[in-house]
UniProtKB/TrEMBL annotation:
It comes from Bosea vestrisii. Residues 1-81 form the GST N-terminal domain. Its EC number is 2.5.1.18. This is Glutathione transferase GstA. Keywords: Transferase. The keyword Transferase applies. Residues 87-203 form the GST C-terminal domain.
């Protein structure tokens, strides 16, 4: 398999999942502005939507959308236990968290990357995003270590990826100590360190 990624983008989430599952894969970096890969290929021929992540399977098919990709990876290696078994309520809970991170947090950060937007719009986006992080903090208030309980899942990898953007767009996470504690736990995982090193995010 080959994962098309951009350093620090949402593609870090399936990158972490691949390492957690212990699956063999290759990486190909994408310039998201020019839509070209590091080998000079036109990335839109891989993913016509033009954004990462994209996972090219061994049979040549391409899977897109991070929440779908991480579940596919988890199901390829169920013994890694990074997602509950398909068809269970626990799996629906995982999908619930993945959808929340995708639609409410991931997309919530988008306006903050638009440096040409008005300060008023950026402030409104921050306030809305803050309410969403309040939701995550409340979920963690029961003392759980991860979003689904005491076991790391692909939802935690996605949350870690997205929440890390806060430091780049003037959205510090100081207000949410439980979120920061979860992120610290995820950051300590060897697979996460390896993924970040491979993308040049840490030394």
């Amino acid at each position: 398999m080959k994962l098309y990624y951009a350093p620090g983008a949402c593609s870090l989430s399936p990158h972490i999942a691949l390492r957690e599952a212990g699956l063999p894969f290759a990486l190909e970096k994408v310039d998201t502005k020019t839509k070209t890969t590091e080998t000079g290929a036109d990335f839109t021929t891989v993913n016509p939507r033009g954004y990462v992540p994209a996972l090219e399977l061994d049979n040549g098919e391409v899977l897109t959308e991070g929440a779908a990709i991480v579940q596919y990876i988890a199901d390829l290696k169920p013994e890694a236990e990074i997602a509950p078994k398909a068809g269970t309520l626990a799996r629906a809970r995982l999908q619930e968290e993945l959808n929340f991170v995708s639609s409410e947090l991931h997309k919530g950060f988008s306006p903050l990357f638009n440096t040409t937007d008005s300060e008023a719009n950026r402030e409104a986006a921050k306030q809305k995003l803050a309410r969403r992080f309040d939701n995550v903090e409340a979920k963690l208030a029961d003392g759980r270590s991860y979003l689904l309980g005491e076991r790391f899942s692909v939802a935690d990898g996605y949350l870690f990826t997205v929440a890390n953007w806060g430091g780049h767009v003037g959205f510090p996470l100081d207000r949410w100590p439980k979120v920061r504690a979860l992120m610290a736990r995820v950051a300590e995982r060897a697979t996460v360190q390896a993924a970040m090193q491979a993308e040049g995010l840490v030394k």
